[in-house]
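A quick aside before the break. I want you to see a complete sequence-to-structure record at least once, exactly as it would be stored in a machine-readable document. Don't worry about memorizing anything.
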Amino acid sequence: MAKAGTRAGTAKPHLYRTAIGATITAAGTGYANGDIIYVTTQHARFRAYFRVVTTGAGGAVTSIALVNGGNLPTDVTGPQTTHHQTGAGTGLVLTLTTQLRSS
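That is the input. The structure line, written in tokens, reads:
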């Protein structure tokens, strides 16, 4: 007998979003080229990671590159606060471009 929410012999797919890019909403301060930053949400299985490519005056981020799109909940929308894995910058906010995936 199949479990609730499944078809006989098949598991229900897990839907999630992965980041495929981001727009800088607020550039922050104190960042350096090469810093690794991430975005996570309450129900994220894996964080989305980005690398700071270029900075301007005061360490304001002017460009980033996607390192790993993560496994984010399907309801991730709007500007997302970032955290730094390396470096000491603060205040960078990104609006993610995501793609729906299933596993």
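Two observations worth writing down. The first strand starts at residue 15 and ends at 29. Residues 20-102 form a domain with the Thrombin, subunit H fold (CATH 2.40.10.380). We'll return to this after the break.
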